[in-house]
Design a protein that fits this description.
By secondary structure, this protein is mostly helical. It has one domain. Helices cover 68% and strands 0% of the residues. α1 crosses α5 and α5 runs antiparallel to α6. The longest helix is centred in the last third of the chain and has 27 residues. It is globular, with a radius of gyration of 15 Å.
Amino acid sequence: MKRRPPTNTPLPLRMAATLFLIGEAAPVAPATFASLAVTPLFYRFVDLASWIQGAATVAVVWIAVAVSTRAEFYYGHDAKAITIDEVAGMMVTFLLLPALPHGVLRWVLLGIGFLLFRVFDVLKPFPAGRAQNLPRGEGVVTDDLVAGLYANLGVRVALLFLS
């Protein structure tokens, strides 16, 4: 699992696959750094209409699979540097949640979502571990989607207790 690709790797592919090079530059845990980098974007994402959230998530998943499939040629299968899959997983984490309160409590819930996503992405509870074995970009992205689904359920439980 290479953190840096060969020099002939197209820069646009590197930028997309590594979330603007976070996957290559992070000193440790590039997936955690990438997930943390996108977490603030979800402050407004959760307010969007459900059809917009769904369409955006489907688009990002499709792009993530395509980019990851191509990036594996340069980085290797499910390489740590490939972090676009974290964006897709985080989108599922915050997809179609009930209305979140604004302010500090929303930031707390976003933090809980981030932490739960990372825990489930690392632990890979069934069927995430098996999903990772799918070929090409499907395997890179699908385990993150499952982790996002578990995290989404966790955020819903936290919302019940915190609001």
